[in-house]
Design a protein that fits this description.
Layout: H1 10-42, H2 47-76, H3 86-103, H4 111-143, H5 147-180, H6 186-204, H7 206-209, H8 225-234, H9 236-247, H10 253-266, H11 272-293, H12 299-320, H13 325-361, H14 366-395, H15 405-414, H16 417-430
Helix pairs in contact: 1-4, 1-5, 1-6, 1-10, 2-4, 2-14, 3-4, 3-6, 4-14, 5-6, 5-11, 5-13, 9-13, 9-14, 9-16, 10-14, 10-15, 11-13, 12-13, 12-16, 13-14, 14-15
């Protein structure tokens, strides 16, 4: 295979991958955090319409998740002079930027037309995002073969991803207001999203420009799809990480519905900047610090202990309540710490499992194996959106209605009790995680 062999310094690769992840994460977190707020408050979708939106989001994300392994197998069978992952990074950037903009540009037409428009755009956005996300994570596994270096890169990607979430959460409502010329409007949101989407994807392209994939013995072979999936099926440690991650979907409920809850409980979506700052502060701090913790604790032990701690925090948070926002901020910060640990350790466990199965089978399938990382992230997000959407519909909340204590309590349960139960259940699969070498 005619790989580009121009040398790239390790530092340049690390910086480029982290900055690319920052740009990509900015787009993802903006969509995840504000799409429901935009649809309810600015596209004026009704309660009945939100039930449809919940179905659209869930169905589309499940389809995206299922398509991730397909995308991974396509990547593993791709052979170009740029490698097998970098071409997808190059050609997916523009579609993601354009479709992200359109998600926040729902036309002012009848609600049925709004729902159709949103459904089509969100479906296409999911496909485009899959094409940019799967190769990005596979590239990290390929470009950084040393486990210690790779863990450091993963921790930085997760940490700066948290920082991008912070900037999006803190800044997007204000940018939308600024571009609205005063009172925030739907047009202001469209302009804000459009600018940041193209800037974010511009940064993402650094992952194509300044990285190189490591050559492997099977680079000249077109591995059959059945071999790729058979290798995946033999990777028991990887499958256990996937199961534990999906069962822990509740970790993402705050991100999926926090902005809506803040509007419902405190009357102003910009108050979510405080909530966002708290969770992001914890996430970033833990992301940078997790490699240090992994010097003393195995990935398995760290994953299990942090998950149990998260469950306890969510339970106590429910009992304390939301009447005092400062108490909520403390708990959000602490759960952010556990979320930061989860992000780094989960990715590290998957990367280690990929190395492990290569040692056992002689086949390294970066594309399809790392597609499972995006697969579970989408399943977790889909379940989080589905459950939160169900609670919102149960509460009967929509723009303009009189907020009642019952509404607030129902939605509060969604972002506290659901994560607590979810985290407790997710510990079970992680308890059985074990590599072929005795290092856990």
């Amino acid at each position: 295979m005619d790989l580009v062999t121009t040398p790239v310094s390790d530092r340049r690769q690390r910086v480029s991958v982290v900055v690319a992840g920052f740009g990509q994460n900015f787009i993802l977190t903006t969509v995840t955090t504000f799409i429901l707020v935009y649809l309810i408050e600015y596209a004026h979708i009704s309660v009945a319409g939100m039930a449809v939106v919940t179905g659209i989001l869930t169905a589309t994300k499940i389809f995206d998740a299922v398509s991730d392994p397909v995308m991974g197998s396509i990547i593993d069978r791709t052979h170009t002079r740029w490698g097998k992952m970098r071409p997808f990074i190059l050609f997916a950037a523009a579609p993601v930027a354009l479709l992200t903009t359109l998600l926040f540009a729902v036309p002012d037409i009848a609600e049925t037309g709004k729902l159709v428009f949103f459904g089509v755009v969100f479906f296409l956005w999911g496909i485009a995002y899959t094409a940019c996300d799967v190769p990005y994570w596979g590239l990290i596994g390929s470009a950084f073969p040393d486990p210690a270096v790779r863990t450091g890169v993963i921790s930085q990607v997760r940490a700066y991803g948290g920082i991008s979430l912070g900037i999006a959460t803190l800044g997007m409502p204000w940018l939308a207001q600024l571009l609205s010329g005063g009172t925030t409007t739907a047009t202001g949101w469209s302009l804000a999203i459009g600018i940041t989407a193209f800037v974010g994807m511009g940064l993402y392209l650094l992952a194509f420009l300044n990285t190189r994939e490591r050559p492997r013995a099977d680079d000249g072979e077109h591995l059959p799809i059945r071999v790729l999936f058979a290798t995946l099926a033999k990777n028991t440690p990887l499958l256990l990480v996937l199961a534990g991650s999906v069962l822990g979907f509740g970790r993402y409920v705050v991100q999926a519905g926090g902005a809506v809850f803040v509007v419902l409980a405190y009357g102003d979506e910009k108050q979510f900047t405080l909530i966002g700052a708290a969770i992001i502060g914890g996430l970033v701090l833990a992301s940078f610090g997790t490699p240090l913790l992994m010097r003393w604790l195995s990935s398995k032990a760290l994953m299990m202990s942090s998950t149990v701690i998260a469950a306890v925090l969510y339970l106590v948070m429910y009992v304390v309540g939301f009447s005092t926002i400062w108490a909520v901020l403390v708990f959000i910060f602490l759960t952010g710490l556990t979320l930061g640990v989860f992000g780094v350790v989960q990715t590290t466990m998957i990367a280690d499992a990929v190395d492990d199965v290569e040692r056992r089978t002689g086949v390294r399938n970066d594309g399809i194996s790392f597609s499972t990382l995006t697969f579970v992230a989408k399943i977790m997000n889909a379940l989080a959106v589905l459950v939160f959407g169900i609670f919102v519909v149960m509460a009967g909340y929509q723009a303009g209605v009189t907020v009642t204590p019952r509404m607030q309590q129902i939605v509060w349960s969604a972002i506290t009790l659901v994560p607590a139960i979810s985290c407790l259940v997710s510990v079970v699969p992680f308890a059985f995680y074990r590599l072929s070498r005795a290092d856990d």
